[in-house]
Write a structure and sequence with these properties.
The complex is a heterotrimer of chains A (about 550), B (about 210) and C (about 400).
Chain A (H helix, E strand, L loop, with lengths): L4 H28 L14 H7 L4 H30 L3 H10 L7 H12 L4 H6 L21 H22 L5 H10 L4 H8 L1 H21 L2 H6 L7 H9 L6 H40 L7 H29 L17 H42 L5 H12 L2 H15 L5 H26 L3 H8 L4 H12 L1 H17 L2 H7 L6 H9 L4 H29 L9
Helix pairs in contact in A: 1-13, 1-15, 1-16, 1-17, 1-18, 2-13, 3-7, 3-9, 3-10, 3-13, 3-14, 5-7, 5-14, 5-24, 7-10, 7-14, 8-9, 10-13, 10-16, 12-13, 13-17, 14-24, 15-18, 15-21, 16-18, 17-22, 18-21, 18-22, 19-20, 21-24, 23-24
Chain B lengths: L5 E10 L2 E10 L4 E5 L7 H8 L7 E8 L2 E2 L10 E4 L11 H8 L7 H14 L15 H14 L4 E5 L7 H17 L4 E5 L2 H7 L3 E3 L3
Parallel strand pairs in B: 3-8, 3-9, 6-7, 7-8
Antiparallel strand pairs in B: 1-2, 1-4, 4-5
Helix pairs in contact in B: 2-4, 3-4, 4-5
Chain C lengths: L1 H19 L7 H8 L3 E7 L3 H18 L2 E7 L3 H12 L10 E4 L1 H9 L28 E2 L2 E2 L4 E8 L1 E5 L12 H10 L12 H14 L12 H18 L14 H9 L5 E4 L4 H7 L7 E4 L5 E9 L7 H11 L2 H8 L17 H8 L16 E2 L4 H16 L3
Parallel strand pairs in C: 1-2, 1-3, 10-11
Antiparallel strand pairs in C: 3-10, 4-5, 6-10, 7-8, 7-9
Helix pairs in contact in C: 2-11, 7-8, 7-14, 12-13
Chain lengths: ~550, ~210, ~400
């Protein structure tokens, strides 16, 4: 039996990753052209697409989405690139790395709320500076959050994408020989940054490329961050799209599908432009190389990169702290820097209502993570059996759910679940989450799994142990820390899912995240504080478990520590 | 006991149609067959083939017999081919005693009997009283001896040695060599040793096959 | 052929009892018996904590008294619940739907009624507690935005547009008394007023209030939109907004997304005037520590919009009996009195106090409506809501003009 199971791993994984996307896209694209027999659409027409293009501000919405995707990616990638270039291998680097890594698990919505509470005219920063510096007795009439060009939204995305790209880069870094390449470049007289850009960056970027594409796709189609920080006149495409998907009019289903198709086109266009930018960047690097310029005075650039990195991390942390304060605030008038009184009233009033969403959050996260871990282990065991490591195509499958905009295929998937009666059921929701949890679990577990010294297995076999005994008593215990960390990553991803939960849970299965975003429009900062704080707490608890349990179990086993 | 001799019948291992190792040889109990070759020559693949854990990337042919039984088609765990690598590879999540208990065949019943075997084995390699220790707190030489005790406790039919002394310093190396060969002789095991150290081959004293030259 | 007939007969046999099994509110004991053990998914706007807490209480009482489990499905827009029913109808799910009860009125009611998505025939006037409902003095209970209710939804609360200000910062005498006044006030106080972004319900209601005040002939609004004269009818509204919007908070480039967000702006001293559809909203916000105790209400002497909000049951609801019991409980004197308490929610009752038994009457008479709540005789005249088609057209026009403007 245990020899059959791993064989099922790769096909199952592909079904989990690609199945929902294929069915979902079909369920989106066909209605976009008028084909949806259940609603009486049996022919093909361009009428819905044409109606879409007559919507007020539709081009503006699409442009904002496109720009947000490109600017977010360019800035966050730029900061990460320059930071690694300037600081990799230093003490500061490892310290920043420890500061930034946990931020990856903070759900996007919580980070966005934190930022909003920080930078709004009545936010924490204005309070800290008023009235002694600014003279403001009342909040200034400044358009910061929800600004029409989407700058706050882009900022909110950047502070979250920086940790993501940094960790992806860190994972790829061991595969390029940074210290020796740097020494070589330095011996040729190149500055730290220039040497990195010429010698290390091109192979490093090749390793990170799919992750960067995922950032482009995500930032062009994000819903929760855009709903919290994004412009409203008009809103970015994905936000309007979700509005149309929920419109009571029957005919809007076709129209919303056409919108989802437009979203797909916008994300694809952003990716194409990004690829063109890649070419341009590579050409510029080539020209620079030919010029032989050394750029030895790059201290300012290194410092700027460090400052940007620290600012991004501190922004998220300060935002989270502000959320926590609001959740315990009594009356807190502008421009007081702290509330007049602290009270647990909001927590106590909210607590009874937390039980249901909290249990759905935990059940769905635990189930989807467990399935993802099991599937990943089967795939990796299969890899060992066949001796073939999953190649580029497998990697593409893994990234598929991150590359196709969620709004573009989840709507069709929801329609599918409605027709099969599976909508708003726990298994359907777990399955939808699994599609997004799986890539992260696989990416985080595959490296430690592959790095495992397989001679331990040869030894166990030589001792007469069966494969299943070897797996259960040697390999899994030795990889327990890596498995738990991968589980914590998967758990965090599931907790942070907004759109899949809203669409597949159909409002009847609510999680802490959907509750928090639903409250966003209400503007009750205290209650938002409670939900967003919890949103951040859950993944943190997951990581604490992942670190503490092995530390406790293996407290007398020195080699099991990191 | 004489039926535990190891017979390699026309064993040939190739990578991309290039033959790395080809050997036909009978290794008597207590005898050592030494395979010499530079690193990267593929000499270790012979051990992997005998042990049953050859990477699928290699193609191999030939038969392996332990005594009268052909073991070529058996899964690794049924071949009882005890192996020692250049690293001791003690399981880091088990205590020293745990490593040894793990190796004792299930046929030995009863906690007391199994623990007694562990103590006896540790005593046999000069490490009495270390059963409860964390293996990572042992010295390199101690670890190597625990690894040896572990493999012997599993009642193997043969001993496969993959450069097991190369990471030890000179003095420890000769001690360890003597210990391993002595144990193999008293346990009446056929031994295949893969190494690039001429001194190993000399100490082993058996036939030497050179590959990759 | 025979087989086909047999299959058809079997199918009929399977479906008929289901149809015959629809609960009948006139046989209330049977409804109560059917309802026991049912779970009612109540789809209601979930953006206000005090309302959520009230529904929490109602759910606990329903469970205790009738064995009905009430689950509040929190919406940010009622249209989402309507969309769910639409999707289910499209998917052929004519039974066992996911929505059992919807908090609804106006546009959404009209849309569901037109598409025959509501549990019918009319059931609301057959509920046991209907006898207390004030149909005589509250005409909006039987006519929802000019659309006849016909018992397809059960009244829950009353709404009237009122304005709030902080008396510690602004003087009542300086505040506007009409839409025209408001524009003049905004010219003197730029950036200190705003309204929730249409199609938010409160924001759209502000547009209707202005239109009702400025339109040449108010009776036009009680009929469906006439496309030929639409532009001419709404011209005064949009020339008004052209002037007002640049004077708004953030120069009219961003809007609060709903009433609670606008309330936060008053709390943060970002605006001076806000408005709500619930006359005691300010008092409950003070009681909840969300607004300073110095906030007071005012209204336009010329009249403001008034309407009723309801609960309705979709045609395919899975727990119709349970939904009926819940709807009836929501108009019980006890539930209504609790709802009107500003400490709890502060939503005005749909009942006629005079029809109640003495003990129930006392529940209302002892309520402290709060310092910031106007007395019924201070609320001013009520303006009728325009036909729902106006809301839709004005929202579209607003989006075209201001929703995408840069």
């Amino acid at each position: 039996m245990c020899s059959m199971l791993p064989r099922l791993g790769p096909p199952l994984a592909i079904a989990v990753l690609a199945g929902p996307i294929l069915f979902g896209l079909a369920g989106t694209i066909l209605p976009a052209f008028g084909y949806l027999p259940a609603l009486g659409g049996t022919g093909f027409t361009l009428a819905h697409a044409e109606k879409l293009l007559t919507q007020p501000g539709i081009m503006m919405s699409a442009l904002i989405s496109l720009a947000a995707g490109l600017v977010t990616t360019a800035v966050s990638l730029g900061v990460v690139m320059l930071f690694i270039a300037g600081w990799a291998g230093t003490h500061i680097f490892s310290r920043i790395q420890h500061l930034v890594s946990p931020l990856l698990s903070v759900p996007h919505a919580a980070a966005a709320f934190g930022l909003a509470f920080l930078i709004a005219p009545s936010g924490m920063i204005a309070r800290m500076l008023s009235p002694w510096l600014t003279g403001w007795e009342r909040p200034p009439d400044l358009l910061i959050v929800n600004d029409p060009t989407g700058l706050s939204m882009i900022a909110g995305l950047i502070v979250k994408e920086i940790p993501f790209l940094l960790l992806i880069a860190l994972a790829a870094l061991p595969q390029v020989d940074l210290p020796r390449t740097r020494a070589l470049a330095a011996s040729l007289g190149y500055g730290r940054v220039a040497g990195f850009l010429h010698g290390v960056w091109p192979p490093l970027y090749r390793q990170m490329r799919l992750a960067v594409f995922a950032v482009v796709a995500f930032a062009t189609s994000v819903v929760d961050v855009a709903a919290i920080l994004g412009p409203t006149t008009p809103a970015p495409l994905a936000v309007r799209l979700v509005g149309w998907m929920n419109d009571p009019e029957l005919s809007m289903r076709f129209f919303a599908s056409a919108g989802a198709l437009l979203q797909l086109c916008v994300s694809a266009a952003a990716l194409l432009i990004w690829i063109a930018l890649e070419r341009l960047g590579a050409a510029m690097l080539r020209r620079l190389r030919r010029s032989g310029l050394r750029f030895r005075r790059d201290a300012w650039l290194r410092r700027a990169a460090l400052a940007a990195m620290v600012t991004a991390a501190m922004t998220v942390l300060a935002g989270l702290a502000t959320l926590a304060i609001w959740s315990f605030a009594g009356l807190w008038q502008f421009p007081d820097a702290l509330p007049e009184t602290f009270t647990a009233k909001t927590w106590m009033k909210t607590a009874p209502r937390l039980a249901a969403p909290l249990s759905v959050t935990l059940i769905v996260a635990a189930a989807s993570t467990t399935l993802a871990i099991a599937l990943t282990l089967l795939c990796l065991m299969r890899e060992n059996e066949t001796g073939r490591v999953a190649g580029r195509r497998a990697l593409l499958f893994l990234y598929l759910p991150l590359l196709v905009p969620q709004a573009a295929f989840l709507f069709g998937l929801q329609l599918l679940f409605v027709f099969t009666g599976g909508v708003a059921s726990l298994p359907a929701l777990v399955l939808a989450h699994l599609t997004f949890v799986m890539p992260y679990v696989f990416l985080s577990l595959s490296d430690p799994w592959r790095a495992y010294d397989r001679r331990y297995e040869a030894i166990a076999a030589g001792l007469g142990k069966s494969r299943i005994a070897t797996l259960l008593r040697v390999r899994l215990p030795m990889l327990s820390r890596a498995i738990l960390v991968a589980a914590a990553v998967g758990f965090a991803v599931s907790v942070g899912q907004y759109l899949p939960t809203v669409l597949i849970g159909a409002g009847r299965l609510e999680t802490i995240t959907t509750e928090a975003v639903a409250l966003a429009s209400g503007g009750n900062r205290r209650v938002i504080g409670v939900y967003a704080f919890l949103q951040m707490l859950l993944p943190a608890a997951g990581f604490a478990v992942a670190t503490l349990v092995p530390a406790l179990v293996f407290r007398n086993r020195r080699a099991m520590r990191v | 006991m004489a039926d535990k001799q190891l017979f390699l019948d026309g064993v040939s291992i190739a990578l991309n149609a290039r033959v790395l190792v080809a050997v036909t040889h009978r290794v008597e109990v207590g005898e050592v067959l030494t395979v010499m070759g530079p690193s990267g020559s593929g000499k270790s693949t012979l051990l992997a083939y005998i042990g049953g854990f050859l990477d699928p990337a290699f193609s191999a042919s030939g038969k392996v017999f332990s005594g009268k039984e052909e073991i070529t088609a058996l899964p690794a765990e049924e071949r009882h081919a005890g192996i020692l690598f250049q690293d001791p590879l003690l399981f880091p999540h088990m205590s020293v005693g745990g490593n040894l208990l793990f190796a004792i065949p299930p046929a030995v019943k009863g906690k007391a009997a199994r623990l007694a075997l562990v103590e006896e084995a540790l005593d046999g390699v000069g490490l009495a009283g270390t059963a409860s220790r964390d293996p990572d707190t042992l010295s390199g030489g101690q670890k190597a001896r625990v690894a040896l005790a572990r493999v012997l406790l599993s009642a193997p039919r043969m001993l496969l040695l993959d450069e097991p002394f190369s990471k030890l310093d000179a003095e420890l190396r000769s001690q360890m060599r003597e210990l391993v060969f002595a144990k193999a002789r008293t346990s009446r095991l056929p031994v295949v040793l893969v190494t690039h150290d001429e001194a190993d081959a000399e100490a082993a004293g058996g036939r030497v096959i050179r590959v990759g030259q | 052929m025979k087989k086909l007939l047999l299959a058809a007969a079997a199918f009929a046999a399977m479906t008929l009892p289901a149809l015959a099994g629809e609960p009948d509110p006139e046989k209330w004991q049977e409804v109560l018996a059917d309802a026991r053990g049912e779970t009612v998914y109540f789809n209601a706007w979930g953006g206000a904590e005090n309302i959520n807490a009230y529904l929490e209480w109602a759910g606990a009482e329903l469970e205790k008294r009738y064995g009905v489990k009430l689950v509040h499905v929190k919406l940010d827009d009622t249209a989402n619940a309507v969309a769910k029913v639409v999707a289910e109808k499209a998917a052929g799910r004519n039974e066992g739907g996911t929505v059992d009860l919807i908090w609804i009125n106006g546009e959404n009611f009209s849309s569901m009624k037109r598409q025959q998505l509501l549990f019918s025939p009319g059931w609301a006037e057959k509920l046991p507690n209907w006898r207390f409902v004030d149909v005589e003095d509250k005409p909006t209970i039987q006519t929802d935005f000019t659309v006849p209710v016909e018992g397809l939804e059960s009244p829950w609360g009353m709404a009237k547009l009122v304005f709030f200000h902080d008396s510690a910062r602004t003087d009542l005498a300086s505040l506007p008394k009409s839409a025209k006044d408001l524009l003049a006030w905004a010219q003197q106080n730029p950036g200190r007023f705003t309204y929730p972004q249409p199609p938010d319900f409160i924001g759209s209601s502000f547009l209707k209030q202005v239109l009702s005040e400025l339109v040449a002939d108010r009776s036009v609004l009680l009929k469906p939109v006439d496309e030929a004269s639409f532009d001419k009818t709404v011209a005064p509204l949009f020339s008004y907004l052209d002037e007002l919007n640049p004077l708004l908070w953030r120069g009219g480039k961003a809007f609060p997304q709903n009433y609670p967000a606008m309330k936060q702006l008053l709390a943060d001293n970002e605006v001076d005037i806000i408005f709500a559809f619930n006359p005691s909203e300010a008092s409950s916000a003070i009681a909840n520590g969300e607004l300073p105790a110095t906030v007071r209400s005012f209204t336009f002497p010329g009249g403001t919009l008034a309407n009723t909000h309801f609960v309705a049951i979709p045609y395919n609801a899975a727990a119709k009996a349970g939904a009926l019991v819940a709807a009836d409980f929501l108009i019980s004197p006890e539930a209504q009195a609790r709802k009107q308490d500003p400490q709890i929610w502060g939503d005005p009752t749909v009942l006629a106090i005079s029809k109640l038994h003495a003990a129930d009457r006392a529940r209302f008479e002892t309520l402290d409506l709060g310092v910031a709540t106007l007395k019924p005789d201070e609320l001013g005249p009520a303006l009728d809501e325009p036909h729902p088609s106006w809301m839709d057209r004005i929202e579209t026009e607003w989006k075209r003009r201001y929703g995408a403007a840069h």
